[in-house]
Amino acid sequence: MRRNTHTHARLYLNDHDVGLVEVKGWDDAWGFGEFAAGEAFNRYARYFGDWSRLLHADRDDDRLTDADKAALRKVEYEIDRLHARLFHLESQEWRRVSELNIDGPLVEWREGYSVEGEPRAA
Questions:
Q1: C-alpha triplet 64, 65, 71: angle, nearest 5°
Q2: Mean per-residue pLDDT for 94-117?
Q3: Contact at 8 Å (CB) between 102 and 89?
Q4: Is residue 120 part of a domain?
Q5: Across 25-53, average pLDDT
Q6: What is the CATH number of the domain that holds 40?
Q7: CA pair distance 57, 77, nearest whole angstrom
Q8: Whole-model pTM?
Q9: How confident is the model at residue 116 (pLDDT cuts 50, 70, 90)?
Q10: Cα separation of 83 and 13, whole Å?
Q11: Domains of the chain: total
């Protein structure tokens, strides 16, 4: 079920505030919106850049080569190893992120439940 909404959240990767997410809506378990990277995102940007280049590379038959599949698995593994969380500014709640895709200014994620005992963002 698709729901439109308009809220804001801060994205944290490995406990670093890496930017602002403008939440545009939800499609079943997936949230989507726009991402404005902060300076701290630079240390993680290469993973998402590699992921995006692999998915959008021009190919004659629109199929990934075995080498591309291996490279994509490797970069997705690295992204999945990141400890990702969102701090929703309006509700003041933390949410775990179990999957995260950042493609240029676009972001989509799958959230977990509120994280009990997480510190409030400053």
A1: 85
A2: 85
A3: no
A4: no
A5: 94
A6: 2.40.10
A7: 20
A8: 0.85
A9: low
A10: 5
A11: 1
Give the helix/strand (H/E) hosting 4. Answer: strand 2-13
pLDDT (average), residues 28-46: 96
pLDDT in tens, 53-104: 888 777 667 788 888 889 999 999 999 999 999 999 999 999 999 999 999 9
Dihedral sign for Cα atoms in the order 52, 54, 57, 61: negative
Domain ranges, residue 93:
2-114
Q: Between the CA atoms of 114, 83, 109 and 21, what dihedral angle is there, to the nearest 10 degrees?
A: 80
99 alpha carbon, distance to own chain's centre: 7
- Is 66 contained in some domain? yes
User: What are the contacts of 44-50 at 24+ separation with CB within 8 A?
Assistant: 44/13, 44/18, 44/82, 47/75, 47/78, 47/79, 47/82, 48/79, 48/101, 48/102, 48/103, 50/75
33 or 59, higher pLDDT:
33
Distances (CA, A) of 52 to 32, 56, 75: 16, 6, 10
